[in-house]
Specification:
With 247 residues, the chain is of the alpha/beta class. Helices cover 47% and strands 12% of the residues. The chain has a 5-stranded parallel sheet with strand order 2-1-3-4-5, sandwiched between helices.
Amino acid sequence: MNSYKLFQNKVLIILFISCNSSNNFEEDIIKVEDDYINSSISKIGVKVANENPYNLLALGDSYTIGEGVDETERWPNQFKEVAFEKGIEFNDPIIIAETGWKTFDLLYEINRTKFSLEYDYISLLIGVNNQFNSRPIKEFEEDLEKLLDKMKKIIKDEGSIIIISIPDWGYTPFGESYNRESISNEIDRFNNSLKKFANINDLKFVDVTDISRRAIYQSDLITKDNLHPSGLMYFLWAQRIYNTWID
């Protein structure tokens, strides 16, 4: 898809922003629309930011591979564009993620992958399928330690790892047929574990769960499958991840 076509498509997304948004978020939404359009415009033609682009490895599940959206709308790809606008250039992100993966699925794939380089930045967003499948949180925590060991072997000496919170799928239309309160409580438990893990290991942590919970009243934050984030939600994530991780 050429840059102008990409710009047209993203403008259309903005034009269809839901009119049902809470008044408390109107100013935020307007600002997001402006930022989203400016981000799209910047892709049409900008100068190279830094001489040696950074390498990003994004690890996870459907939320990282971007189930239901175009490749350009995945959060790692939009993160690259957000960073570029700020004068920091990344190569195209390397993504190791699949829909439905639990922590041990990701571990299995990392173990069978032959990495050809070390990365400047590594992100980890995993755990929703552990929660959905009622896997023990102790197992989750043990897998996190194993994942960190793997990441340390492929991160540069001056590299940075960020842990991203688990979105709350209970706030999606798909979650209507479940006990939303129970889902949110479980998601919070897993996220508390993630935050503790990040703090203990001196890793960056970013919370995107509150953004995911806006979907209950802002339908354009969800794809047509009524479960996964739209490109607009991923853009909100990309901005926050950049601000937490880089800015």
